[in-house]
Write a structure and sequence with these properties.
single chain; 498 residues; alpha/beta; nine-stranded mixed β-sheet; five-stranded antiparallel β-sheet
Length: 498
């Protein structure tokens, strides 16, 4: 077998070589690597006694906690597969995900036991917030099995905003590439990484896993609050963090922001559009570098913008990662000229095994080029400039076709965000008898008159881009990782358009 970075083996090694170094902190609960591994070994032994074997999936439905982190190590220690699931899912979605994973054990905290016990009658539920009552300290974990690079490391279920979530199977090799790539981004035994996004999200895992792999300390904030986040960053002298764009905006808007002493060496962002002006403000007001990642949980091509090195490219998401290939294609599968928008498709070694139990959907996720090569489809529209930097336009499904013209909501949103008083904006297409589709904006702009704002926006837009309606709302609906839920806006629109 090919030798790759072995995450659970590295954690065992940290317990031997730096036992007193802190591994995980959450609130008042913290564990050194010695205690972290001792607890994970006991949990792994108990899992094994309950029949968990290499390749088996084990589900977790809970808020972030020290024992959530412990269970990642315990499950992987057996070469089993972690299946973390979003508590924000509906009972029907949870039931479907658990059934899809094939797990017999589901670790839940108290809130999620209450929410989902009625639909999880075929599984054994284990209280994650009372793990000691379940652990059998009289059992011993088996020797660490050999590592198969192609084995399933974890299953990440998609958000499910359009139906039943799909299980994205990420391999041990795919995660190992995230870990080794993390070394070049500054993760080390001295890193202190502050994470306030959940442990069931790939957004979190791309920082959580490399931090522990290289022997650093993870500080978990189960529920994001900007003021508390600043206090945690200062108290623990955090060197690294992963935030989604809306969290950066809220941190910078915190009235007491300038009262805190921050120690960041590197900050990261992914999962949602990150406006250039916000990146510039982060660079200006927060210490350390800033890196934006663009890509899919499924893998394929990934892009990285080292924002502090390319201040003139903040409107982009950077260039392809080393070893990643990208093509921009039109609706007929033809490569488009440089600077022309098209769908982003890519290839890389860091690509999912596929969607669990759905070979049909896995096949549909790829575009086959005329030469027979397969490229993972992102479903995103973008263009690459002369320097190789990618500018995202929109999701292909969010593009508005009005009177035969392609309209990119991001272009309209950029105009809206440049108007006085506008904090956030999202544009969707709604049905129109006259045009087929026409753009409608949902805007967060306290104290601003909607009619005046619409007029100002339309004055700066092209004729085909002009808004049919503008709706003021208190906040945009978002997923747990900050993505605007445009389907909810579109489905909830109650206005009338021509």
């Amino acid at each position: 077998m090919t030798s790759i970075f072995d995450f659970p083996a590295a954690i065992l090694d940290h317990a031997a070589t730096r036992p007193d170094h802190t591994a995980v902190i959450c609130g008042d609960h913290r564990l050194s690597y010695r205690d972290f591994v001792a607890r994970a070994e006991a949990a792994a032994a108990t899992l094994h006694a309950h029949g968990t074997r290499p390749g088996d999936a084990v589900a977790i439905i809970a808020a972030s906690s020290v024992d959530y982190a412990v269970m990642w190590q315990a499950i992987l220690r057996l070469r089993a597969t972690v299946a973390p699931m979003a508590p924000s899912s509906t009972p029907a979605q949870i039931a479907a995900m658990v059934a899809d994973s094939g797990t017999r054990l589901v670790f839940v905290d108290a809130a999620n036991r209450a929410a989902f016990a009625d639909v999880l009658t075929g599984q054994t539920l284990v209280d994650l917030d009372n793990l000691d009552a379940w652990i059998d300290h009289g059992t011993i974990a088996p020797p660490l099995p050999p590592l198969d690079p192609g084995s399933a490391f974890n299953i990440i279920y998609s958000s499910g905003t359009t139906g039943t979530p799909k299980g994205i199977v990420q391999s041990a090799d795919m995660r190992a590439r995230h870990i080794t790539g993390g070394k070049a981004l500054g993760y080390s035994g001295d890193s202190v990484t502050l994470l306030s996004t959940p442990l069931y999200s790939n957004t979190t895992l791309v920082s959580f896993i490399p931090t522990l792999a290289w022997g650093g300390t993870v500080v978990l904030q189960p529920k994001f609050h900007a003021g508390d986040w600043l206090r945690l960053a200062e108290t623990h002298a955090a060197t690294h963090t992963m935030l989604v764009p809306v969290q950066y905006r809220r941190v910078l808007a915190e009235p007491a922001f300038d009262d805190h002493s921050l120690s960041f060496v590197m900050k990261f962002c992914t999962s949602a559009p990150f406006p250039g002006e916000l990146k510039a403000e982060v660079l200006r007001r927060m210490p350390g570098g800033l890196i934006e990642f663009y890509g899919m949980t499924e893998g394929g091509v990934g892009f990285m913008l080292v924002a502090h090195e390319f201040p003139d490219k903040l409107h982009t998401v950077g260039r392809p990662n080393d070893g990643h290939a990208v093509r921009i294609i039109d609706e007929d599968g033809n490569d488009v000229p440089p600077g022309t928008p098209g769908e982003i498709v890519g290839q890389s070694p860091a690509t999912m095994n596929g969607y669990r139990n759905r070979p049909d959907l896995t096949d549909k996720a790829y575009w086959t080029a005329p030469d027979g090569s397969k490229w993972l489809r992102t479903g995103d529209i973008g263009r690459i400039d002369e320097d190789g930097f990618l500018t995202l336009m929109d999701r292909a499904k969010d593009m508005i076709i009005s009177g035969g013209f392609n309209i990119y909501p991001s272009d309209i949103e950029a105009v809206l965000l440049g108007l006085p008083g506008v904090r956030e904006a999202a544009v969707v297409g709604v049905a129109s008898d006259r045009w087929g589709e026409t753009p409608v904006a949902f805007v967060v702009a306290p104290g601003v008159d909607a009619a005046a704002l619409k007029a100002a926006a339309n004055a700066g837009l092209g004729k085909t881009q002009r808004l049919a309606d503008l709706v003021l709302i208190d906040e945009l609906p978002r997923s747990h990782i900050g993505k605007v839920l445009k389907r909810e806006l579109r489905d909830g629109f109650a206005g009338r358009v021509d």
